[in-house]
Design brief:
By secondary structure, the chain is α+β, with helices and mostly antiparallel strands. Helices cover about 50% and strands about 15% of the residues. It comes from Streptomyces gilvifuscus.
Length: about 350
């Protein structure tokens, strides 16, 4: 059974006003002092953000429990210095991001200018174990069309600088401004993948391999494929769903490779259109079906994803869990929809943030 790990970025906010607070350094210090959470939490580009990483897990119930525990521990450490955490992929309230210290972050700020200041968005990255770089690149080539559906399930960033962006995932539109971000062509081999990464770093446009922001890539640190398309999810069970489906598409892709089935040859241009469609309306309207790249109702496309991974999820015991979680989201449970409903009910973006901070820890 392939192991799966999750990295989530959380927003640090004032528990009363909902305003983002640049206190990640203090929260990290508290976590280090606790002893039990040393190494779990990490700093991010901005002081208003806190990241955690789970251990690799083979059992999805164990992974879900760890996501919940990490969120609650993050909230506990934040509460000790007067703030809390919210799993929001963008700040609903206006914010002036505070770029972290260090030569790497300074280089990024100087190189990319205002684009860095506009990059305070928060994602969920899923690591799925692979046996080799060859298997990993074969997986990357075959999961490309399915990533937009994972993104649609995760949408959780409708607001930007105090306004409705008209997108369900504005985070993804902001993230796409990085010169190395987005979908990739079919690589065909690990050698071609690594040559492409080397050429990108050698260009000088990006600082190092860590800035290769493909939608999915080989991890630098772990023997995994890292899927990077999801917003950080408002509810922990949605984050778990993304992890379950990520393992499903990776396992299915690996089986296709071993059986000699070639990847679908959709162009990067079409994959970008699919990503835009997913970001624009999430599960609320239509998506591009990964097989045909033609518009279909979101529920039909989600059903297609579940059918695609049915064998893999059935063998891991996760199929019914995934079906139930997808039904919940299709019935109106996406983070973006919940945020908009909170605003409609309360009339206050501050109330949106404070309510979402509570939902983060459930």
């Amino acid at each position: 059974m392939r192991t799966v790990g999750v990295e989530e970025e959380l927003l640090l906010v004032d528990p009363e006003t909902g305003e983002p607070k640049a206190l990640s350094g203090a929260v990290l210090a508290r976590a280090e002092q606790s002893g039990t959470d040393a190494g779990v939490f990490e700093k991010e580009l901005f002081g208003q953000m806190l990241e955690f990483a789970t251990h690799p897990q083979a059992d999805m119930k164990d992974l879900g429990d760890e996501i919940v525990r990490c969120r609650r521990e993050a909230a506990r450490h934040a509460g000790e210095i007067g703030c809390t955490v919210a799993a929001l992929a963008s700040s609903p309230l206006p914010v002036s991001p505070s770029v972290g210290r260090g030569s790497r972050y300074r280089w990024m700020a100087e190189q990319y200018g205002i684009a860095v200041q506009e990059q305070m968005v928060l994602g969920c990255h899923v690591h799925v174990a692979v046996e080799s770089d060859e298997e990993g690149v074969a997986v990357l080539d075959r999961i490309r069309p399915w990533l937009s559906v994972l993104a649609a399930l995760s949408v959780n960033s409708p607001f930007w600088q105090g306004k409705d962006s008209c997108y369900d995932s504005y985070r993804s539109r902001v993230w796409s401004r990085w010169p190395s971000a987005g979908p990739t062509e079919v690589f065909g081999s690990a050698e071609r993948y690594h040559r492409r990464v080397t050429d990108m770093v050698s260009s000088g446009v990006i600082l190092d391999e860590g800035m290769v922001y493909f939608d999915a890539r080989l991890s630098q640190r772990y023997p995994t494929v890292e899927i990077r398309v999801a917003d950080v999810c408002l509810r922990a069970e949605t984050a778990l769903l993304i992890a379950v489906l990520a393992r499903g598409v990776v396992e299915t892709a690996a089986r296709q490779w071993r059986a000699g089935h070639p990847p679908m040859d959709h162009s990067v241009s079409l994959l970008r259109l699919a990503a835009w469609r997913a970001a624009r309306s999430g599960l609320g309207e239509e998506l591009l079906h990964p097989s045909t790249m033609r518009r279909l109702p979101a529920e039909t496309v989600v059903a297609g994803l579940l059918q695609h991974v049915e064998e893999a999820l059935g063998e891991s015991g996760d199929l019914e869990r995934a079906r139930a979680a997808c039904d919940t989201l299709l019935d109106g449970g996406t983070g973006a929809r919940i945020q908009r409903e909170l605003l409609e009910r309360t009339g206050s973006l501050r109330e949106v943030v404070t309510n979402c901070a509570r939902l983060t820890q459930e």
